[in-house]
Write a structure and sequence with these properties.
The chain has 222 residues and is of the alpha/beta class. Helix content is 57%, strand content 11%. It has a 5-stranded parallel β-sheet with strand order 2-3-1-4-5, sandwiched between helices.
Length: 222
């Protein structure tokens, strides 16, 4: 670990966790991966989803369509029926209903475990709010102009129509998720240490985060 940090010019810091919240299509996942690689830290992105799925005892694909979203109306009605019906109450112990609320509870457990372990880069899933009171956590929000996000999605193989639609809808779902479960607007600017426009380039963003980690450490130790 120390060798990796010396290579990239990062001294041991009081910061042990970095949370990366992001607008859809701004490159947050790629930047988080690059940051974790340079630090030699564990990346909790797909790994987080996999661990949630394991604990929920359900396929990863089920978690992927539920995390960072509120339940759609038809699903809420379905749950109400199960909870309120005679047959549903009799068979409740046999049902493994994976909804947004149950996933959120498991997510908090996994995020807190990752934070306790330390040396972790955690992507989204409300981690910035779960860890908002930890002094060893740097919380970053990444965003980009709409045209940059669409261009990045096109480079990933999305069609023009699909890219435009995803940019328009995914962030709305994240907004509703944060508002419902954390009772704040998205993005909640007060919770972040830095908000960075990824149009400057992924490498520049990573270096800004690394420099910020060192700056915070200097301010605390001076």
């Amino acid at each position: 670990m120390e060798d990796v940090q010396r290579i990239v010019g990062v001294e041991p810091s009081m910061i042990k966790i970095v949370t990366i919240e992001r607008e859809y299509g701004c490159g947050g996942g790629e930047i988080a991966h690059s940051l974790a690689m340079q630090l030699g830290w564990k990346l909790w992105d797909q790994l987080l989803t996999e661990e949630i799925a394991r604990l929920a005892n359900c396929p990863k694909a089920v978690v992927e369509v539920r995390e960072e979203r509120t339940d759609p109306l038809y699903y809420r009605l379905f749950k109400s029926f199960l909870r309120g019906s005679y047959e549903g109450s009799l068979n409740a112990h046999k049902l493994n209903v994976v909804d947004s609320e149950s996933i959120l509870k498991i997510t908090e457990r996994v995020v807190q475990h990752a934070a306790k372990t330390g040396d972790s880069v955690i992507v989204g899933r409300g981690s910035q709010h779960f860890l908002r009171n930890r002094p060893d956590t740097l919380r970053v929000f990444l965003y980009a102009p709409r045209e940059n996000k669409v261009r990045r999605l096109l480079a990933r193989g999305k069609s023009e129509h699909e890219a435009q639609q995803l940019v328009d809808t995914v962030d709305g779902e994240r907004h509703d998720f944060i508002q419902k479960y954390f009772h704040v607007e998205w993005p909640d600017r007060a919770v972040y240490h830095a908000m960075i426009n990824t149009a400057i380039g992924d490498e520049a963003v990573v270096h800004m985060i690394l420099d910020f980690m060192k700056t915070i450490d200097v301010r605390v130790t001076d």
